[in-house]
Amino acid sequence: MELAEAIILSVLAASTPLLIAATGELVTERSGVLNLGVEGMMIVGAACGFGGAWLTGSIIIGALCGMVAGTLLSLIFAGMTLGLAVNQVASGLALTILGIGLSGLIGAGFVGERITPAPHLHLPFLTDIPLVGRILFGEDAFVYLSLALVVGIWLFLYRTRAGLILRAVGDNHISAHALGYPVLRIRTLAVMFGGACAGLAGAYLPLAYTPFFIPGMTAGRGWIALALVVFSSWRPGRLVAGAYLFGAVTILQLHAQGAGIGIPSQFMSALPYLATVIVLVLISRARTGGSTAPAALGTVFVPDR
Amino acid sequence: MRKILVAATAVILAAGASMFGASAADKLKVGFIYLGPVGDFGWTYQHELARQAVVKEFGDKVETTYLENVSEGPDAERSIEQLVRAGNKLIFTTSFGYMEPTLKVAKKYPNVHFEHATGFKRDKNMSIYNGRFYEGRYIQGVIAGKMSKSGVLGYIASFPIPEVIMGINATILGAQTVNPNIKVKIIWANTWFDPGKEADAAKALLDQGADVIMQHTDSPAAMQIASERGKLAFGQDSEMIKFGPKTQLTSIMDNWAPYYIDRVKAELDGKWTSEDTWGGLKSKLVVMAPYTNMPDDVKKLAMDTETAITEGKLFPFKCPVIDQDGKEVECKGGDHLADGQVLGMNFYVKGIDDKIPGK
Fold it and tell me: What are the chain A neighbours of B224 within 8 Å (beta carbons)?
């Protein structure tokens, strides 16, 4: 049982950065903008998040620095794709390359430094409950915040007028524009939210996961977050399931190797991705009628004035 | 692909390098191609330290240029050629994957000298050099065998190539000299560098009962996790004690500086020839970080082992070497395995209860 508990704790931590980044991207895509720069925003968030925490000694300030950095980077993207109507795919890829280079520059000053990681919660009585205590009340605060974030986004998208407008903009920007909604302003806000989430997700890595900064430490997690959004068919609930499934397969394959289960490790390492592909196929087969992607996803909108 | 690779950075840096290429004709220009960022705190960082040592040693006589984040592939060839065109006469390419690109450029420019790390292909104007890191791994095995209370070691491996397999074998052979029943749990991360995944692997190994962690991946993440859990670990490539002051037992440090200084000196004196160098503890290409967090008797044992290997009295792969299936491995090097056998190692020694992936 102790091993099971340890595995679940590892899975929660491994899934959290994916979940935060994917939630942000989900909102961005729901507004009709495809930002492929998640990896770049994450790594800059990691560099700035670590820098902030290292200089001030505060994890919270570090997290805020990460969010601000991600937002600023996303504004470059918004300026290009929304302001200048540049191709979103190319801009997103450029943003990733820019972010990776920029993070090395920002991080150069504190590579090799270390900080005290975000503490694990310890609530009296609750954390000490056998079996479930440490899982439900004993991880770092980011783990629970990420879940609260998803719930909040679900409520926003499906239970508020603003969420309805956002989805309308993502599905048909011409109609939304005709109804008088400020399409570009709404999309800019959605892109900024995505940037803040990506920055926070990146910052989670040096603040709570491995408390140091090394260039390239996000190691492709931004791309996985992008895949998870498609995997979830743009729904927050499925996003949680997808992120935890991905985290679980990643961690379980490591445990299977350690236990000496004789499956080639190359196959095991590919397993999380394979699982993603299989679930995608299953989802698309089960779907009846039409695509679930926001109809205007990735298309450029230039308002006629 | 050894690490996270950033093609764009390389291209920009290469362009920068060619711009600086016009000045100072009388200085010897020495170029370096790095796989990762100089601040990776591991593999590339150690090469960068050696470059700085070259600058310190020769001062005005040399001018060095490095290109970092150069990916292994077509980009590498372009970057190496950029260095040649910028007037570099001696070029160090510091990763296994640069082997073919270096060879190709070397054939094209017979008057430029090349130094390629960890490969096996040479040419008239292309030397190869590598470190006998397995010697350090053997010492780590001895220490781990003594320090493990559970008798289970945790090993985070990267890719099932001979370099990594010889490290695992040397570790176990060392550990068996002090604890014949030692067990090792191996997790292949299938990456050289992913701090998050390395941390996950370390957690999994500790959760499964290992109490000493060692790694053949490049970040200090595993050290950090072991430190958090109050367990022990070894550093990798460079000094990592900062990440686990009460955790690091020692670390195998890649010390390229003496070799680089030696080669630059040969080039300056006009005595450079193509060579094949595989240096270990004796030539100080492999250096052990201070032995810490262990009782005095273990420390003494570690130092004695180091001395014996340095003096050539002890060979990590001394015969007979018994493989996993109980068969004795043919002994081609007299009383120890020949270098060629070690360089191509593709079997586990007896005592490892696991299979090499894909075999």
Answer: 114, 210-212
Of A220, A258, A265, the CB nearest to B357: A265
Size of interface A-B (CB pairs under 8 A): 131
Pick the CATH number of B7-131 from 3.40.50.2300, 3.90.226.10, 3.30.420.40, 3.40.50.150: 3.40.50.2300
Write down the pLDDT at residue B302: 97
Contact B93, B116 (CB under 8 A): yes
Interface test with B, best of A10, A97, A255, A257 (most B CBs within 10 A): A257
Question: What residues in B contact A108, CB-CB < 8 Å?
Answer: 39
A10 contacts on B by Cβ (under 8 Å): 200, 203-204, 207
CB contact under 8 A, B4 and A112: no
CA distances (Å), origin B2, targets B95, B97, B217, B338 = 8, 8, 10, 27
Hey, what are B292's tokens? 């810490």
For tokens 């292994």, the residue is B72
Mean pLDDT on A296-304: 87
CB A185 within 8 A of CB A31: no
Give pLDDT tens digits for B284-312: 999 999 999 999 999 999 999 999 999 99
In a mutagenesis test of the A interface, which of B4, B6, B48, B70 is the best target, namely the one with the most A β-carbons within 10 Å?
B4
- Domains of chain A by start residue, with CATH: 2-111+139-286 (1.10.3470)
Residues A195, A75: contact at Cβ < 8 Å? yes
ipTM of this predicted complex? 0.85
User: Does domain B133-253+286-343 correspond to CATH entry 3.30.565.10?
Assistant: no
For residues B133 and B237, give the distance between their C-alpha atoms in angstroms, rounded to a whole number: 9
Answer whether A205 sits within 8 Å of B353, measured CB to CB: no
Q: Say what the pTM is.
A: 0.85
Measure in Å the smallest separation between the Cα of B30 and chain A Cα atoms.
Answer: 24
Residue predicted with more confidence, B308 or A286: B308
Residue segments in chain B with a per-residue pLDDT below the cut of 70: 1-25
Distance from CA of B123 to the nearest CA of A (A): 34
Strand arrangement of the beta sheet that strand B113-117 belongs to: B62-67, B28-33, B90-93, B113-117, B126-131, B276-279
- Non-local (6+) Cβ contacts of B44 within 8 A are B3, B34, B35, B36, B37, B38, B68, B94
Q: Quick: pLDDT tens for A162-191.
A: 999 999 999 999 999 999 999 999 999 999
Dist CA B345 CA B167 (whole Å):
10
Rounded to the nearest 10 degrees, what angle do helices A2-30 and A161-171 cross at?
A: 70
Mean pLDDT value of segment A17-36: 96
Beginning with the edge strand found earlier in the chain, give each strand of the sheet holding B286-288 in spatial order: B183-188, B152-157, B212-215, B232-237, B248-254, B286-288
Interchain pair B208, A214: CB under 8 A = no
The whole-number average pLDDT for the span A276-281 is 76
CA nearest to A2 within chain B: B207
Residue with tokens 């399931």: A241
* Tens-place pLDDT, residues A46-78: 999 999 999 999 999 999 999 999 999 999 999
User: Of B265, B345, B258, B68, whose CA–CA distance to A111 is shortest?
Assistant: B68
Band (pLDDT 50/70/90 cuts) for residue A291 is low
pLDDT at site B262: 94
